[in-house]
Structures are given as structure tokens and as C-alpha cells.
Write a structure and sequence with these properties.
Layout: H1 7-20, H2 32-43, E1 48-53, E2 56-65, E3 75-82, H3 91-105, E4 110-117, H4 120-128, E5 132-143, E6 146-156
Parallel strand pairs: 3-4
Antiparallel strand pairs: 1-2, 2-3, 4-6, 5-6
Helix pairs in contact: 1-2
């Protein structure tokens, strides 16, 4: 699980996605302090996982609330970022597998991912884990001097009951 002490390294992984790609629509690299606050916010309720190879964080994945209104509490949006040297290594799949396992234990029902299109690597990992493309927003973001589409992907987690039970905060799940 990530800690605020990981913020600088996580930001180091995230920065090239901000500065060199349209994978994230963020324009400015946040400060380490801002990134620490983001980690803390996620960990109030959901998992924020890191992958470590040879004592170095090489990727991370987390879930956050899909929307703030009460009726959406069983739905999350996921994000995953890998050190560029570790893309395609299989570590992202390990992160996602563990993330979905934890979300299921938390009683989360629906998982969404917003992917800038085209993005073959992100599309592939989401399809691999059973996501389906449910919608495309055309020209929704402008970055790096061009308009970009996003695709919304959806995955339903298998739960035993159709009756929703209170989502369990990640801190209350035995890890």
C-alpha cells in the first residue's frame, strides 16, 4: 500500500505522462505536497497500491470514488501508471489483479476507467481484465496542440448478493 512517503517517487513516475503525453489531461506537474494529499485522500476509503522491484517503486494503481453522491458509493474509477521502463513487464497486471481483489472485498460493485483514445496499451489491459468499452467522448480534452477522445470502460465485480452492503473502507480490510 502506498504511503505519503512514496509521493515523490510516484510523482516521478507520473510526470512524463503529464509532460509528454495526453494519457492524463493534467497540464501542470503537481507538487510533492499536493501528491501526498491525493494519496491520503484515496487511502481514506480505497486502495492505493505500489509495485516494488529491487527496492524501487516501478508502478502504482488506485481506485477513487466515481462520484460523490451517495447512490454512487459502490462505483469507483481506477488509475494505473507504470515507470516507462516497466511497461509491458506484466507488473501492471499484477497491480490490477490485486486492486480488483481488494475492491471486491470492500464490496465495490462497479469499476470504471477513463482512457484517452487511442491508447493501445491501456485499452489492452482493460480488455484483458474484463472491461468493456461503454462510451466514447469525442474531442473532450485538448492537450499537446490537439483534441483527444476518451473511452469509458466498465467492469462489474462479482458479488454474492444483489442487495448492496456498505462499502468497507480499505483500512478496515485485513491485508
Amino acid at each position: 500500500m502506498a504511503t505519503i512517503e512514496d509521493a515523490a517517487r510516484l510523482l516521478e513516475i507520473y510526470t512524463p505522462y503529464i509532460t509528454d503525453t495526453a494519457i492524463t489531461f493534467e497540464y501542470e506537474v503537481p507538487s510533492v505536497k499536493e501528491f501526498e494529499a491525493r494519496i491520503e485522500k484515496v487511502l481514506e476509503k480505497f486502495p492505493y497500491l505500489v509495485a516494488v522491484e529491487q527496492n524501487r517503486i516501478v508502478g502504482y494503481a488506485y481506485a477513487s470514488s466515481y462520484k460523490t453522491r451517495a447512490a454512487y458509493q459502490w462505483s469507483v474509477e481506477t488509475s494505473i501508471y507504470m515507470d516507462l521502463d516497466y511497461q509491458g513487464s506484466g507488473i501492471g497486471s499484477i497491480l490490477y489483479r490485486k486492486l480488483f481483489e481488494l475492491l471486491q472485498k470492500q464490496r465495490v460493485r462497479n469499476v470504471y476507467a477513463c482512457v484517452t483514445l487511442p491508447n493501445s496499451k491501456s485499452e489492452a489491459i482493460h480488455k484483458k481484465f474484463g472491461f468493456t468499452l461503454i462510451g466514447r467522448f469525442h474531442n473532450v480534452g485538448y492537450k499537446l496542440n490537439e483534441w483527444h477522445d476518451t473511452g469509458w470502460f466498465e467492469k462489474h465485480l462479482d458479488l454474492e448478493s444483489d442487495t448492496p452492503e456498505q462499502v468497507i473502507p480499505i483500512g478496515d480490510i485485513g491485508l
